[in-house]
Design brief:
Layout (H helix, E strand, L loop, with lengths): L3 E3 L1 E3 L2 E3 L6 E5 L6 E6 L3 H16 L8 H17 L1 H12 L3 H22 L5 E3 L6 E9 L2 E5 L5 H15 L2 E5 L6 H13 L6 E3 L4 H9 L6 E5 L2 H12 L4 E5 L5 E4 L5 H13 L11 E5 H16 L19 H16 L3 E4 L15 E4 L6 H4 L6 E7 L2 H9 L6 E5 L3 H10 L4 E4 L11 E2 L5 E2 L1 E2 L1 H6 L2 E9 L10
Parallel strand pairs: 1-5, 8-9, 8-11, 9-10, 11-12, 13-14, 13-18, 14-17, 16-17, 18-19
Antiparallel strand pairs: 2-3, 4-5, 6-7, 7-23, 12-21, 15-16, 20-22
Bound molecules: ligand TXE.
The site of ligand TXE has 27 residues, from helix 7 and helix 8.
Keywords: Oxidation, Oxidoreductase
Organism: Mesorhizobium amorphae CCNWGS0123
Family: Belongs to the aldehyde dehydrogenase family.
C-alpha cells in the first residue's frame, strides 16, 4: 500500500504549505500509514482566502452563465463516477467505514453535484411592477461571495458535496477545510473539479487542525459566509468567530434522534430500521436513530427481534463487502464510546448485547452494543455517542413517545414507524427537529433540505434552501417618468 501525500490546493494547483509540519493519517482499521496532509497554518489560510477573493472579484466563475457553471459541475459529477473506486478506497482507508457505505457516499456525492448543477440554471429573482406609478423593482439573487466551508470526518466526500457544489453553483468561490483525520477525498475532488473546468482560485482546500486552520478561517475578515458541520461545541465557537465580522453562518451539528416504533408498524421493516438507525456508518452519523423507543405492548418480542438481528452484525475489515460495522475514527473516539458504555452499565441500564471493544486487532473496533431499559436521566440517553451503541426505552402512549423524543438538547432528525397515517402526521408535527421520516430511516434525496433546531444548529444543507444559503437578495427599485417631489420648490 502506498501512502498518499497531499500539498495544499490553492489558486488552482497543489502548492507547498507555508509550515514544515505534516499530519499523518493511519488507517483506523489496520494502523497503516495511508496519507499525509500539510499541517496548515494561518498563512496558508490567508493565501487561500486571497486566491478565492481574486477569483470572486475578477475571475470568470461568478461571471459565467448558470448553464456554463452547470456544465462544469456535471463534468465534475461524471469524473467522480469514473474515479469512484479510487475515492471509495480513500474513504474506507481514512474513515474506516464499511466499503458498501463508502460506495453509497461517492454515488451520493455525484448525485448532489448533479442536482447543484441543475440549480445553477434556476437562480432567479422577482420583479414587481405593481408598486406605484412608474416604479419597477427587480429583486435579484446574487452569489454571497467567498465562502468558508468546514467539514467533519464521518462523511468526508458526502458532506463536502452538500456544500461545495451548491456554493459553486451559486457563483461563490470556496475555501474548504476538511477534517484533519480525513482530508484525502477533499484534495482529490478539488483536483477533479479543476479537471472539470472550475477555474483557478474558485475552489481551494487547506488541510490542518481546527484550532489553527479552522479557527483562523472561520474568523477571517475576508470571508462572506461560513458553512460548518461538526460538533455542537465547535459549532458554537465557529458562530462566535463569524459574529466578530457579522458574517452569516450555517451550522449543522450533532444529534440524538428518536426512532419511535408503534405497535401497528410493519415490525420487520422497523427492525431493519432499528439496525440502520444505529449501525449505519459505524453509528458515526449525525442523523443516527440512536434512541429507540418501542411501544410497551410489542416491546419484548420486538426487542428480541432487534437483538437477534444485531447479533449477526459483522464487525471488522471495512474492505470486506460483508462487513456491517467498521473501525471507529481513532483511539480517542473509541475510548469515548467505551466510556459511554461504562456509564450505561453503572447508571443501571440493562446491557443486552455487546458492550466491549473488539479484541485481537490493532484497529479501533467496537462490538454492536444494545442497552434496554434506558431512562431519561442516564448519560447514554442524553449524549451523542457516535458509535454502534443503541439505547432502548419503552413507552405506552403517543404523548409519552413525543415527550421522550423531545427530551433532548438536540433537534436534528426523528423517525416514526406506524401504519396509521393519523399517528404519523400528529407525531411528526409535535416532534422538535428539522427532519422527520416515517417508515424509513436515514433516507433522503438531494432535493430535500436538512436543518437542525435547538443544539443541532441552524441553516440549511441541500435542496433549494441549501442552495439559497449561498446567495443573497439585492433589491433594485427604479422610478421611470416623473417623480413627485417631496420638497417642492
Ligand atoms: O468534531 P469537531 P470532532 C460530533 C460527534 C463527535 C464529536 C467530536 O459526537 O464524537 O462531535 O468530533 C474543525 N474552528 N460530531 O472533535 O471538533 C475540525 O478540524 C473551526 C458530529 O471531530 O466539531 C473538523 O474539520 N473549525 C458531526 C470539524 O471542525 C474547527 C460530525 C469538525 O470537528 C475548530 C463530526 C475551530 N476552533 C462530529 N475546531 C456531525 N454533525 O455529523 C475543530 N474544527
Amino acid at each position: 500500500m502506498s501512502t498518499r501525500s497531499y500539498q495544499q490546493f490553492i489558486g488552482g494547483r497543489f502548492v507547498d504549505g507555508s509550515g514544515s509540519g505534516s499530519i499523518e493519517r493511519r488507517s483506523p482499521a489496520t494502523g497503516d500509514l495511508v496519507a499525509r496532509y500539510c499541517d496548515g497554518t494561518p498563512e496558508d489560510v490567508d493565501l487561500a482566502v486571497e486566491a478565492a477573493r481574486i477569483a470572486f472579484e475578477e475571475g470568470p466563475w461568478p461571471r459565467m452563465s448558470g448553464m456554463e457553471r452547470a456544465e462544469v459541475l456535471n463534468r465534475l459529477a461524471d469524473l467522480m463516477r469514473t474515479n469512484r473506486d479510487r475515492l471509495v478506497r480513500i474513504e474506507v482507508e481514512e474513515v474506516g467505514k464499511p466499503v458498501r457505505f463508502a460506495r453509497g457516499d461517492i454515488d451520493g456525492a455525484a448525485g448532489l453535484t448533479r442536482y447543484a448543477a441543475s440549480l445553477a440554471m434556476q437562480m432567479a429573482g422577482l420583479t414587481y411592477t405593481n408598486i406605484g406609478e412608474g416604479k419597477t423593482a427587480l429583486i435579484s439573487r446574487e452569489a454571497v461571495g467567498v465562502v468558508a466551508l468546514v467539514t467533519p470526518w464521518n462523511f468526508p466526500a458526502l458532506i463536502l458535496s452538500q456544500k461545495v457544489p451548491f456554493a459553486l453553483a451559486a457563483g461563490c468561490t470556496v475555501v474548504l477545510k476538511p477534517s484533519e483525520f480525513t482530508s484525502g477525498s477533499a484534495f482529490e475532488i478539488a483536483a477533479l473539479a479543476a479537471e472539470a473546468g472550475v477555474p483557478a482560485g474558485a475552489f481551494n482546500v487547506v488541510s490542518g487542525y481546527g484550532a489553527t486552520v479552522g479557527d483562523h478561517l472561520t474568523g477571517h475578515a475576508g470571508i462572506d459566509f461560513v458553512s460548518f458541520t461538526g460538533s455542537t461545541r465547535t459549532g458554537s465557537r465557529v458562530v462566535g468567530n463569524t459574529s466578530r465580522h457579522l458574517v452569516k453562518s450555517s451550522v449543522e451539528l450533532g444529534g440524538k434522534s428518536a426512532n419511535i416504533v408503534f405497535a401497528d408498524a410493519d415490525l420487520e421493516a422497523a427492525a431493519d430500521g432499528a439496525l440502520m438507525g444505529v449501525f449505519f456508518n459505524n453509528g458515526e452519523c449525525c442523523v443516527s436513530g440512536s434512541r429507540l423507543f418501542v411501544q410497551s405492548s410489542i416491546a419484548d418480542d420486538f426487542i428480541a427481534k432487534v437483538v437477534a438481528r444485531s447479533r449477526k452484525m459483522k464487525v471488522g475489515d471495512p474492505f470486506d463487502d460483508d462487513t456491517d460495522v467498521g473501525a471507529l475514527i481513532d483511539h480517542n473516539h473509541l475510548a469515548k464510546v467505551t466510556g459511554f458504555v461504562r456509564s450505561g452499565i453503572e447508571e443501571g441500564a440493562q446491557l443486552v448485547l455487546g458492550g466491549n471493544v473488539a479484541t485481537g486487532t490493532v484497529g479501533h473496533f467496537h462490538e454492536a452494543t444494545i442497552f434496554d431499559r434506558v431512562e431519561p436521566h442516564m448519560t447514554i440517553f442524553r449524549e451523542e455517542i457516535f458509535g454502534p451503541v443503541l439505547s432502548i426505552t419503552r413507552f405506552d402512549t403517543v404523548d409519552d413517545a413525543v415527550r421522550l423524543a423531545n427530551d433532548t438538547a438536540y433537534g436534528l432528525s426523528n423517525y416514526i414507524w406506524s401504519k396509521n397515517i393519523d399517528t404519523v402526521l400528529t407525531v411528526a408535527k409535535r416532534l422538535k427537529s428539522g427532519w422527520v421520516q416515517a417508515n424509513t430511516i436515514i433516507d433522503g434525496a438531494p432535493q430535500l433540505p436538512l436543518t437542525g433546531v435547538k443544539g443541532s444548529g441552524f441553516g440549511y444543507e441541500m435542496g433549494q434552501a441549501g442552495f439559497e444559503e449561498f446567495t443573497q437578495l439585492k433589491t433594485l427599485l427604479i422610478q421611470t417618468g416623473p417623480r413627485a417631489p417631496v420638497f417642492p420648490v
